[in-house]
Structures are given as C-alpha cells and as structure tokens.
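We close this part of the discussion by returning to an individual protein. Part of our work consisted of pairing the sequence of a single chain with a tokenised description of its backbone. What the numbers capture is local backbone geometry rather than side-chain detail. The amino acid sequence and the backbone structure tokens for this protein are reproduced below.
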Amino acid sequence: MHNFFSNAERAEVLTAALPYIKRYTGKIVVVKYGGNAMIDESLKQQVMEDIVLLWLIGVKIVLVHGGGPEINDLMQRLGKKAEFVNGLRVTDKETVDIVQMVLAGKVNKTLVNLLEMKGGKAMGISGMDGMLIEAKQKDERLGFVGDITKIHIKPVIDLLEKNYIPVISTVGCDRNGNTYNINGDTAASFIAGALNAERLIMMTDIAGILRDKDDPSTLIAEVTCSEAKKLYEDGIVSGGMIPKVECCVEAIREGVKNVVIMDGRVPHSILMELLTDEGAGTMVTGG
C-alpha cells in the first residue's frame, strides 16, 4: 500500500475524515452483511477490518449477518434439497435445525473470531438469545419461516454499553419453543429501528438503486421513502431489489435516521460510505 501514498497524502486523508469521525463517534451504526462480500475471502477480511476501525474510533457498530450460501452448502452435503415458494425458502423442522446450526453456530462464531483477530472485541448472539427476535409463523406453506412480532433489544444495548461489537444471527423464536428462519434484511431493519440507529448499511451485490439496472453509472445517490415507493410503481426497482427497498422504508418507519444500500463487492465500501463526502450506494431518507 505504502507505494501509492506519501505520508503527507495519508495525513490529508485522515484529516479529511475527521468531521465524519466526529459525526459518528458514539452513534449506533447497524451493518447488514451478506451476499458476495461474505463469500469472497479477501472482501470478508476487509469488511472485518472496516468494522474494527469504526469500532476503534468510537462508533457503536452492530453486525447483523445472513448466510444463505453456507446453508445451501450444508444442505447439499446432507443431501437435502432446497425448496422455494415465491422466492422464500421452505423451512421444515430439519431445515430450521440446519439454519440454526449454520447461522448461530458456524457463521456467527467465524465472524466473531475474525473481528477478534483484527483487534476488535466482539460477542455473537442469535435472535433467540434473550429472545432478541420474537417471531410467529409467516405462512403454513413455508414451515418454520418467521415474521417478527417483537424485538427485545436489551441484550444488544447491554453489549454496546460494555463496548462489544454485537454480531447477530437472524434466527427467531416464539414462546412455545419454536425456532424460525428470519429474513436477514428484515431483521436488520427492525433491530436498527429498535436501537434508533444513526444509520443502517445494507450490503448487497449491486451498486445501489440504478435507474437502468444494467448501467452502474445510473446510480441514484439519494431517495426519500415516498420517491422509493414511486420507483417500484414505475418498475425501476424490481425483482430482488423490492424487498431490500421495502426493508429500508420499514427501517426509517421504525426510527432509523437513514439507510444506505450499497455494493459489498467494492473493497472498503463501508469506510467510503461513512468517512468520505462521496459516500457509496443509494441513501434512503425519511424526506
């Protein structure tokens, strides 16, 4: 790295970041992490570095993660076929056990371990711990897929107060002891809302909201919730982007100041978003 920058240039980069550092120190930022940034090993390392850096400058950072590819991987190895109804994973009892094993076990603890190795202090919890994510069955046809009924946010606040980076896997539960698979984006928006977060960052595999989905230069840098609704009425937001944008609107309704949908495949996109005036991706605001 040092070949590119003189020390003076480095110092300049740091001083340019100062107003942004001041803006976010002591504030809560929730990062929803998944997709390609999670699969690609070098990107994963960079995301962890970004999170630890933000934590070191005093940002109260909460990491909410998915793990779809890892779930599919283990299901294949166990010879179990994934079934989908309208794009939602059908989750029978055996599948929900696998989801719990992969998300709350392997993925969660791997991320905690990585953050610790980068010099952070992290603690992994699932939506079942302290009944963080209380849920009910979404639709009988989907089995153990849950809709969130309530967020009990205290365990996360306790961890933040003790200066941990909470790392949250999105499995939920009900009062009858059932476990539910919860959509990671939805969980992140509800958790960010319950924390009144300054910002929710949704990492995806696209640059943000594009006017023309095949042309990254048509990125829409900022939209209000009502403009976002219009974008899907006009068909500009379509397919897998619809639920993502709905989650952004939901998060703002729940009390998050603003939400950013951004490309997790870009190295250090989190830092660019929070610590530069360029930002990254599309910001959704209350307007």
The chain has a mean pLDDT of 92.
